[in-house]
Amino acid sequence: MASLSKSYKQQKIEGTFDAIIIGSGMGGIATGAFLAKEGKKVLVLERHYTPGGFTHVFKRNKYEWDVGVHYVGDVHREHTELHKMFNYITGGKMKWEEMGSPYDVMYFGDDRYDFVAGTEEFKAKIKSYFPGEEKAIDEYVELIYATQKNQRWFFAEKLLPNWISALFGNLLRKSGLKGNKTTLEVLEGLTKNKKLIAVLTGQYGDYGLPPAQSSFLMHAALIKHYMKGACYPVGGAQQIYETVAPTILNAGGEVFTNAEVKEILIKNGKAIGVKMYDGKDFFAPVVISDAGIYTTYKHLLPEQQKKELQTEKLFENIQPSVGHVCLYIGINESNETLKLGKSNYWIFPDNYDHDKNIADYVNNPDAELPVVYISFPSSKDPDWDNRYAGKTTIEIVTLSPYAWYEKWKDKRWMKRGEDYNAFKEKLAQRLLEALYKRHPELRGKIDYYELSTPLSTAHFANYEYGEIYGIDHTTKRFEQKFLKARTPVKNLYLTGQDIVSCGIGGALFSGLITASAVSGKNLLNRLK
Ligand SMILES: Cc1cc2nc3c(=O)[nH]c(=O)nc-3n(C[C@H](O)[C@H](O)[C@H](O)COP(=O)(O)OP(=O)(O)OC[C@H]3O[C@@H](n4cnc5c(N)ncnc54)[C@H](O)[C@@H]3O)c2cc1C
What we know:
Blueprint: E1 6-7, E2 19-22, H1 26-37, E3 42-45, E4 57-60, E5 63-66, E6 72-73, H2 81-90, E7 96-98, E8 104-108, E9 111-115, H3 119-129, H4 134-159, H5 162-176, H6 183-188, H7 194-200, H8 216-227, E10 230-233, H9 238-250, E11 254-257, E12 261-267, E13 270-276, E14 281-283, E15 287-289, H10 293-300, H11 303-309, H12 311-314, E16 324-331, H13 335-338, E17 344-348, H14 354-363, E18 372-375, H15 377-380, H16 384-388, E19 392-399, H17 418-438, E20 446-452, H18 454-461, H19 475-479, E21 492-494, H20 504-519
Helix pairs in contact: 1-9, 1-20, 3-4, 4-5, 4-8
The structure holds flavin-adenine dinucleotide.
Flavin-adenine dinucleotide is lined by residues 22-28, 45-48, 53-55, 68-72, 260-261, 290-291, 295, 324, 326, 397, 461-462, 468-469, 496-497, 502-505, 507.
């Protein structure tokens, strides 16, 4: 890893660059790699001590965990754009392991529903749980595909230069925004069966909003993404950075960690470089931010530009996504012994009402957990035993509002006090109980556990409100024209999940969009 990035604390930044990229998440490095393939030298500046944003992994007590990659769809299918993009920017080095079927298992109380790979297989499986709902299930899957197809126009508009977008943008957006209703509205148009609706929306945790609040555009994108199954990165999520970074470096680019940008430098209305926290300035003809729309517009833009862009007004129609906690678990036994399998679990209360459960929980932390997601990363990775033989890891995630943690926000990491630790411990125990309910044989076997909170996300990933997925995927979000690569400030561009959608796929695609905008070429044409 060391040779694939340098620490700004230890090494100087030298030379000139065609572009500066703020942030080394999937969006930042994908943008950098697409530009590198066009012969551009980019400088990636990452504030964390590890590169990769949510694709990075962390190690503790002889274990290793991912922080933001549990499964990715479509990358195993050669004709998909996701597969082609990864292939293009990694020279075919990024490898994926299929999870098989079921890749997701839902539990509503003790009722179990399997999400299996393959459109026909998926339909048949769901129909087997809901006899009499065959027509609704067929229509639902058709609608998922039709909505996804239409979204191409929506994203096509993000690729256009401003002047063409001014002429045809509204037309393209209108076509792409068909289906921009809430997920619940759309599903209630297909069936009155509340249980079926709850099962079909059981993956809502993948985009953070329950059915009455999320846009069906996001729901359709997610369902289509996993319809043919899911994969896990061979060698763990860090492989994403490790296979993309060489493309940037081979073109003369650099990635610096411990390199926090304080401000974007603007002169005569144009972005000209960045100011670092240590006061040093670096210049380039193009500046690209992968730091998220809030951080970029609220904290990195100078006051003058904030006023000109009326950022406060822009923010009226978007909101930060909810926070999350993740319990990272280590067991001193091998995958082979424990046989936990590759499927992710989604565990819900038995009332089949995601919106009510979220509302109850937000108002009362002691209410039943609205969703518990359990992932078994070490079982999914065929390379795991080469690195951590005899060990097993588990990750358990649930949503958790930032507001609950705000009172501790000014305290230092690892030193937030006894009351914070007690709050965390209570949650950790509840998550462990959810695990033991499904795997009683694990009780007494946990060797290590550690809970991250929205304050960890704020601290390590610089999301001010500990957002799990950047901005929320509401219907309003998809109507916002400013969420695109080009900004009104000349030579300043955005990339990352906020301009497309959350997910490795969304952030990767943002890289293609932003690099296309910067280079003035439609880089989709480069994909074979
Ligand atoms: C718990 C969790 C689970 C997830 N699971 C999945 C999954 O299974 N499958 C999937 O497809 N997606 C998943 N996601 C979503 C996915 O990881 C993200 O949508 C995606 O990685 C975001 O990439 P990005 O480049 O937009 O942002 P990020 O990865 O957040 O990168 C932004 C980078 O900018 C840096 N930065 C911020 N401010 C500055 C500054 N001032 N100076 C320098 N650097 C700065 C940050 O440190 C960060 O590294 C998950 C996310 C989370 C949180």
